[in-house]
Amino acid sequence: MTVGRALFQLLVFPGLLYAVPVAWLMLWMERKLTARLQGRIGPPFYQPFFDFVKLLAKRPLPRPPLQALAMSALPVLAVAGTLGALALLPVFPHSGGFTGDLVLLVALLEIPPLCAVLAGFVSRSIYGELGATREAVLSIAYSLPFLAALVALAAAANSLSLSVISQQAMWQVRLPALLALALCLPVKLRVNPFSVANAEQEIYAGATTEFEGPRLALWELAHGLEWVALTGLWAVLAFPAANAAWPLRAVVFVAISLALVLVLAAVAAATARLKLAQAARVYWLWGSALGVLAMVVAVVWP
Amino acid sequence: MNILGLISRNFRRDPATYRYPERHVPATRFRGIVRNDTAKCIACGICDHVCVSGAIVVVGHDDHCDWSYDPGRCTFCGRCVDLCPGEALSQDGDRAPTYARSGDLAQGEQITYPACPECGLPARPYNERLLMIAHDDISPEFRERIKLCERCRRRRSQTVLTKGLGGAADTERNADGA
Amino acid sequence: MSPVIPVGPYHPALEEPYKIELDCDGEAVREAHITVGFNFRAIEWLAERKNYTQDLALVERVCGICSNVHTLTFSRALEQLAGVEVPARAQHIRVVVHEAERLHSHLLWAGIAAEVIGFQTLFMTCFALREKVMDLLEAVSGNRVNYAMNKPGGVTRDIVDPGMVAATAQAIRTAMEREIIPVFTTDRTVRARCAGVGVLTRDEALAWGALGPVARASGLPQDIRKAAPYEIYDRLDFEVPVRPEGDVLARIVVRALEIVESCRIIEQAVDGMPAGPIDAGDFIPVPAGEACARIEGPRGEVFYYVASDGSDVPLRVRIRTPTFQNMPTVALMVREQTLADVPLIQASIDPCYSCTDR
Ligand code: SF4
Ligand code: SF4
Fold it and tell me: How do B34-36 and B89-91 pair as beta strands?
């Protein structure tokens, strides 16, 4: 991978230039579809962008220097981590990547939840702490199926390189693995029925309760980018056609990502929020079952 | 119907919400802002008396009465309209417009008192309904007197009184003399 | 983590300010302490300083949801003092508005319950249906929240279009039976959140003096409309739903069935509405004396005591609302439950703290 390519991926597609507007688009789609399913009009499409600008324009609260630093650095880190993960997505498989980028991707995707947990604790609010605890418990619960699915895919493709995996993993493995990943999306994105970590009626905004103005804006951005990255990862893994022309690949990548947003929003609209223990049980049980199934298939199948 | 049926129906239907500044059209006979038809108002102050929130304030002066109303304080209970003896008050059938500052929609009316038929100075207005509520049976003489201003009314009473007293005194003297 | 978690006084799950402090052990609740009084507005004190007509509008503002209940009880107390008879048509209209208010209160509550378990769509559905009730009330009274329908001796407004009222009640009943009740009772995520949560046993309900739907969901068939019928309730045919389970789901079911019953009551009351006057005169003098009145509000028994010295200002007005009785049971119900259930459990008694604080 050349430096130019890497920069292109980080800054243009599927990185910054693509991801930020699409993050807002996805946030809007989620809100709009939810509204329509609930019989409401819903916000205009520029609403998430306006929200972001409005939050940016607010004066941050004065805080003790160390806390202020931590509370600014954590969302920045979350944004950066997600952007990095996005840059690794092999939308154009021949364009590069390196062996082991899967490991880096997993690590980068774990940064936002980790930052959220830390944010909950540094903000020194009891609701932040509760949200952080819940976030931590859930991330343990969903990490098992999430990682198992990715490991199964890697084992099936016999490679730790994302582009190889996305091209070569067998469908017998890919299917349960994709299902397991899809199951992990709602909790990673904190939407119903697994919106436990930011359950407004119980613990306000959870980990980000104490964040305000530009710091909150960054969290919102990080959240939108997580949508892009996670749906993007799923899209990349679900669409292996290696020899399709690059415009087609880009279009399909975007289409699958957006469709996934709609599905997630519809599921969220049709469900109530589960409790922490119930949500964790779903992942321990069904998530792990799918992940383990994928792994067993990957190992046993010739 | 389960939740899937519900959301798919919602999706097919038009949204139930409005985009501002569209508004839900109120029902007929909606209780909106109170209006005073000053021609009928007799400045009795009942509306002020029954208004719990002090939205209506009636202040009497020598030759007129100030009737003021602030919709921002009004609870739209309609008690003033129901009990107004002059049937001067009514309520708009539409929602109050949105306004930015308190007091923006406040109304102030002046009820000028009619001239007294005897001296031409201002006399307190009255109407039939108020009379019926306040007095059980009304003689033609009383009906005449109620139109007068307070001074003329007092003078009329004085005349009657002195006449009556005079008569009584006469009789007494006569009795003494007898 | 600090062991005491405050819920409130300002909290997204609470409709009104009050405070529960939870002694927690992780996510499990050990003990709850309830503080009220954030909503104190001195309404009783004010009522002793305003005349009876003003007091009608004043007591209407004790509660933003069950406003009609307060004017109705207050009017009934004054009618007792004055010894006036309410014309039959006025009684029917009172029952229509009273039940319509129960409808919208219960639908509002169902929406809040859905919202508290994070079920936004169900919340919107309940509120869309509630909007129909609000439109009905607006068409009848001209107001959406504080209807100003009652006065001593009758009502202030006639129902001009009884057919519309009956049709709306019918439509609400159908929507309730077809849409909302099935989702609440069969949806898996709802059941997972509500069944077996926040149990109040029959004995506890009795000992702690629970009222209204809370008592009825714990197996106590207690309803003033049956026990001491007022207006025309003794001539109406309706059921009082009772469930033995005592959990949140039972409270949901009881209220949902009550909505259906209320629709039936409205239909009957409109059907049998006789012609005639709607009040016993504009001015009802209140003689010296004292009187009590109680009626079944949406949340349970509402009690009024009025003392008069014969002037146009009451000597004393005492208001006791059902939440005052139901509130302590929350501390009982949340014990050994998880933190995530607390908002739902406190909401399940349909608390009205502005009523309680007055
Ligand atoms: S006549 Fe009606 S509007 Fe005029 S002061 Fe009396 S009550 Fe008020
Ligand atoms: S409607 Fe009620 S609150 Fe408004 S001015 Fe009349 S009496 Fe006062």
Answer: antiparallel
